[in-house]
Amino acid sequence: MPITSTRSRYEGRWRQKERETGTIEAKTGYQKGQPKITDLEAFKQFVLENSNLTQDEMAVKWNVSQPAICRTMKKIGFTVKKNNTVTKSVMKKNEKYLKMK
User: Fold this and answer.
1) Rounded to an integer, what distance in angstroms lies between the CA atom of residue 80 and that of residue 70?
2) What is the largest CA-CA distance in the chain?
3) Rounded to an integer, what distance in angstroms lies between the CA atom of residue 57 and that of residue 52?
4) pLDDT in tens, 13-62
5) What backbone torsions phi and psi does residue 81 show, to the nearest 5 degrees?
6) Are 61 and 53 in contact (CB under 8 A)?
7) pLDDT greater than 70 at residue 2
8) Quick one: which H or E segment has residue 49?
């Protein structure tokens, strides 16, 4: 594809944008980002009080996403909690193995 055809394709988009919006300026103000946990001490206390919850459950209570919980827990030095369903399934396999002996 020649360079001129690529250039004309983009020029067409810019001209259309200028007709529709009156400008070819880039859009701004729509990038909000993820909610962040800013009060680390309060969050640390929350984690200590609710250590039996999974990150998904903590996210619902704290009103943020699970990745935000994960990032903040990493910042304050907590490790990831094991997934209970995996642990139970592994325990069942171990029980079956032990019964066979």
Assistant:
1) 8
2) 79
3) 10
4) 888 888 888 888 887 777 677 778 889 999 999 999 998 898 999 999 99
5) -75, 145
6) yes
7) no
8) helix 40-49
